[in-house]
Design brief:
alpha/beta, 8-stranded parallel barrel, 12 strands, binds flavin mononucleotide
Length: 341
Amino acid sequence: MAHDRRKADHIRINLEEDVQFPGLTNGFEGYRLIHQALPELNLTEVETGVAFLGKRLQVPLLISSMTGGTEAARAINRNLARGAQARGIAMGLGSQRTGIEQAETADTFRVRDLAPDILLFANLGAIQLNYGYTVDQCRRAVEMTEADALILHLNPLQEALQADGDWQWKGLLGKIEAVCRAVGVPVVAKEVGWGISEGTARRLAEAGVAALDVAGSGGTSWSEVEYHRAPTDRLRRLAKTFADWGIPTAETLLMAQRGAPGLPLIASGGMRNGIEAAKALALGATAVGIASPFLKAAAASADEVIETIEQFALELCTAMFCAGAGSVAALREPGRIVRVF
Ligand SMILES: Cc1cc2nc3c(=O)[nH]c(=O)nc-3n(C[C@H](O)[C@H](O)[C@H](O)COP(=O)(O)O)c2cc1C
């Protein structure tokens, strides 16, 4: 089916091609945590844990939604889940449309046997709600994977770049609101790498989402991914033109905070080390999401996934120590971070 092929293409292109934003960065280089020569902390006592949607993350990190639906995707999901369980972080599954429309692939999304304790997110494209999906399919996605919450991803540009994309986006917000009311688990709205504006954050909060994953620009560029899949010259040129579209992650994080004050926010999109993560937390994020580096790690082994988490946790702890913040709450205190340009 076309959807399976798309998911296989996504893994292959993300592993083999350079599909990072060519020009835009995530924007965190424009901020600096203030170094404390006298932190008055013991490095070994820095506490990175946070509470998110009723569960505890030992490190404020989410493996962003990526895959499922094929045998290669099953292996990747299982390596990711082993890593997430071992280090107590959250994990998102890839879009489960295939699992719903071809029941025999549902198993490629199942990881609860390996990760009984983690905060686990089911995932569907919100746009499917304009193409016949209702709260029933959303519930099935959650039940299929024994997930704690549902991510609905928003990807208008990605759809616009596809010859057979879903282009009818009118009237979607009301349907998201209906899912939030009836699905029975928290709903998180997420972009896929172009960010969420202040007004969109406000409307999604009013619709009842429990959290937002801003998924801003500066990391994986889906325009670049679609460039490699485009069937015609015209679509290839279109994708290239939009290679640097979107709201950089640091900016969209602040926009979302203004639009949805008090709502938990995941900072994602080009987050590549623990210093950037510490900056995002200092700017108000509850957790940080990372996709592409985890795809590469999981394509190798579960041990590589664990190593990626360990490195990130070490960098985050070191940044918190040198910023004089013994906890994520302390990192969020005013005066920890400054804008440098
Ligand atoms: C191979 C791959 C597949 C993805 N599939 C999905 C998906 O099914 N649903 C979704 O919400 N996001 C999906 N994403 C987007 C990521 O969750 C993330 O928002 C984006 O890649 C930006 O993060 P990064 O810069 O850390 O890669 C996918 C990303 C990759 C690399």
